[in-house]
Amino acid sequence: MNGQPATPTELEINLIERVNVGDIVTRAADLYPDRAAFVDGDRRTDYATLERQVNRLGSALLSLGLKHQDVVGVMARNCTEMMVAYFACARAGLICAPVNLGLRPDEIAWCLNDAKAKVLFAEQALGEMATQVLAVEMPALEHRFWIGGDGEDGFDALLDRGSEAPLEAMVGDRDIVQLLYTSGTTANPKGVLTSHLAVTMAGLSNAIAHHTGPGLVTYVALPLFHCAMLNSITMPVMVLGGTVVLAKGFEPHEAARLFDEHGVQLMVLLPMMYGLLLTDPGLKSRTFPSMKRAMYAMAPMPEERLHQIHAMFPNADVVLGSGQTEFTPATCVQRPEHQWSKSATWGTATAMTRVAVMDEEGRLLPRGETGELVYRGPQVMSGYLNQPEVSRQSLRHGWFHSGDVAHIDEDGAIWFKDRFKDVIKTGGENVASIEVERCLMEHPEVAEAAVVGAPHPRWGEAITAVVVRAPGGTVDEAALLEHCRAHLAGFKVPKGIVFVDAFPRTGTGKIQKHVIRGELERFYER
Amino acid sequence: MNGQPATPTELEINLIERVNVGDIVTRAADLYPDRAAFVDGDRRTDYATLERQVNRLGSALLSLGLKHQDVVGVMARNCTEMMVAYFACARAGLICAPVNLGLRPDEIAWCLNDAKAKVLFAEQALGEMATQVLAVEMPALEHRFWIGGDGEDGFDALLDRGSEAPLEAMVGDRDIVQLLYTSGTTANPKGVLTSHLAVTMAGLSNAIAHHTGPGLVTYVALPLFHCAMLNSITMPVMVLGGTVVLAKGFEPHEAARLFDEHGVQLMVLLPMMYGLLLTDPGLKSRTFPSMKRAMYAMAPMPEERLHQIHAMFPNADVVLGSGQTEFTPATCVQRPEHQWSKSATWGTATAMTRVAVMDEEGRLLPRGETGELVYRGPQVMSGYLNQPEVSRQSLRHGWFHSGDVAHIDEDGAIWFKDRFKDVIKTGGENVASIEVERCLMEHPEVAEAAVVGAPHPRWGEAITAVVVRAPGGTVDEAALLEHCRAHLAGFKVPKGIVFVDAFPRTGTGKIQKHVIRGELERFYER
């Protein structure tokens, strides 16, 4: 060397040692510049191009005057632009907030206001829905760009303003990279803040959990605004320099075409989507040998259905993964050796997650005992935005509290029992609402049932059922109570039954038990 | 919940979200309590036992009065105790410094003094060598415990003093977990400080690089005091809940027995060790089908040797990994698809490492051009102990400088050329000393050659060769120079040749070129 080099600056040291989600793109572009990062309809974006776009959009965003950790909202169906925006925010030290299109427009606007988003990328093709969101006053919002728009306020126009030079901003490991709102089965949406470190750990540990290898091809039809797709699928595939085939929603024939055309090896679908593939007359005898791993989310499936899926994907492990937004999200994935023997479980802990069961006093329980699932690990959220009290509550006793009730067996597999708040405390006994719901739903004239605890002067909480009758059903309260008495311990039999035509539901279709509880607040004061 | 829970303490939040190397054991003990973590001769330590021992030793160390980030030295051949000490330090927030047994006793004591080690675990069976180290004054050292000692000052006695309760101390992601001394081919040993985050990232990214799966069984005969074994093999295997079969050095028949008995799937050996396995009359027709991955370190091997290794390990990928202590250490590993086509390369970048080539002015060079290998990634060391200036130097221009000269090809594979300092600048030309050394060693009467630049009034540096003749060889300077002129460009021919009986070497057998350079400092002033 000629002369003494300058002492490395703080930024130079940050660039060397940091954990930054945006650097995933740079590393893949180094090794696989020509490989497709995204296939999105007719568009194919290779890693070298993606790297340039990330630099351009990131520098363009900073040139708008955004400051470190400002929020950029994205309102779009799955598309390349959403991921360019995500990585550009990561590299620029901004926070990306993809909003949940399952929410109502006023709820979306509420989230964007809660986040104080300064920029919004909105998909022009969303039409009326986007218009309704933008009609709500959003005082913090300074800029709106249309994805798919070709004017001055289009995404591409902003991209053109940026520089392709490597964007090198100082970003800490635990700075926030994403803000996702949970759909809220028990309360209003909560904004979950997640760090670069958490997303990177999720990427690496899911890459291990997927048991696959480099250059994976995955199919992403479920929305990228859910962290299952964003963090458990997209990141681990991109960490390995693989390809993400994007779809705007699930359609069986299009899915089959993409499986064949791209040799898809990994995917996550909902059980209902497997049903559509398996029962489609044009597809049901098809096989897709490229698939190595067909995952499903949240709800176990019956063994017969698993046999059908294995027949369609003869080279695939068919496994369930579970988790929650607050843990980025995969906490547990079924091990391949459990795909048959423990198909009803939620899987076992991923590489960087500790899973345990806790009682209400904060004591960890031994294997086999039932209590609340609690987690530790660097994939944990950094907190809920603007909700310090709820954030603290969720971290009590030195563990993250999932709100799920389960036990862990001798192999570390998780057997889900109920949502924690669905444990009804009645007359000194704890009753899992799911057990009562299952009993009710076994009655042939019941389509669906939701069971909650309603305040009661004698019982504390009284088990109370809300029931939707099956089409043509005429069963009444007395007959249903008799059915319950025949199948349940006495203290588990509802004290009251209400018949309704439909349940209140979230944007993503989950029953809003907190709404039901609210409606039954004074039920026993009648 | 009854009442409001207390706000989580700083320690509770740390326990939830931190990255701590010691937590690797806890997670594996959750899932695989009965599986062997270590097999060490007749001793088998399962993960549940290891977890208890780590808690006990960690709490016992803290009870000695050690403070956060104090240093604990370990002087031992591969054994379970070394790893218990390592994880106990991790969990207690202490720094573990396993010393290099290839160094001379006074050098080991120098390292322990440089580290200000307060506790030393020493293997009693090292005998005279341990006695010589302990005879050196070590003012900071407060406690010494014998591994294998059965008295009050034995490792086991200290273990018995501790508590099995989970040891929960506050430890940061970037707190230091290990201190390893490089063997120093160009200067005195340098103490490399490595963080919890770096070791964990190395564990996860090497687990991916190994292309294997959970519950791996590995064989570790190379010393654990090198980070290749400690970080690139042991951690990724333990992250997956696998088993580490320990050996105190390599012996072909014992190795074969362990492969068979434990179904070893992964290992790293030096090329010389493969040679011993392949040429042993009792083993050379054997095969070991359990092996999935037979790695080798640092030096490429000829294709014929690779064929022989493949024949012995018919189900294994045979790949080279490279790196350095300062990067924890694996920066590059050959991809399986390159094991034949690019067997002469150092591999391609691991999942969290960026590798580039830089010129002397700090400019990154395009693919194909030769310069110094530089790295970025969270596996980077936190610095050299007590050497802030060298630490800063190593991080100049926003990259970690490897000191290796190479180019990167279109697939991202690294083609090593030379150590940076072995580029001799002579008469305006740069000459890689390795090229001149290879030419000299092609002469049948030359056993070994080391080429350096010696200061010269006309040439700046004059290419100067130090040569060990082959047994019975009589070649002289004039004949060797003629040989060089026949095979090298004129400016690459040495200006002088010195014949010696042996080279100065480090404890691990590397030629100490800095010693040779020192001896030739005034060669051209004669």
TrEMBL record, chains A, B:
<dbReference type="Pfam" id="PF13193">
    <property type="entry name" value="AMP-binding_C"/>
</dbReference>
<dbReference type="InterPro" id="IPR050237">
    <property type="entry name" value="ATP-dep_AMP-bd_enzyme"/>
</dbReference>
<feature type="domain" description="AMP-dependent synthetase/ligase">
    <location>
        <begin position="26"/>
        <end position="385"/>
    </location>
</feature>
<comment type="similarity">
    <text>Belongs to the ATP-dependent AMP-binding enzyme family.</text>
</comment>
<feature type="domain" description="AMP-binding enzyme C-terminal">
    <location>
        <begin position="435"/>
        <end position="510"/>
    </location>
</feature>
<keyword id="KW-0436">Ligase</keyword>
<dbReference type="Pfam" id="PF00501">
    <property type="entry name" value="AMP-binding"/>
</dbReference>
<dbReference type="InterPro" id="IPR025110">
    <property type="entry name" value="AMP-bd_C"/>
</dbReference>
<dbReference type="GO" id="GO:0016878">
    <property type="term" value="F:acid-thiol ligase activity"/>
</dbReference>
<dbReference type="InterPro" id="IPR000873">
    <property type="entry name" value="AMP-dep_synth/lig_dom"/>
</dbReference>
<dbReference type="InterPro" id="IPR045851">
    <property type="entry name" value="AMP-bd_C_sf"/>
</dbReference>
<protein>
    <submittedName>
        <fullName>Acyl-CoA synthetase (AMP-forming)/AMP-acid ligase II</fullName>
    </submittedName>
</protein>
<dbReference type="InterPro" id="IPR042099">
    <property type="entry name" value="ANL_N_sf"/>
</dbReference>
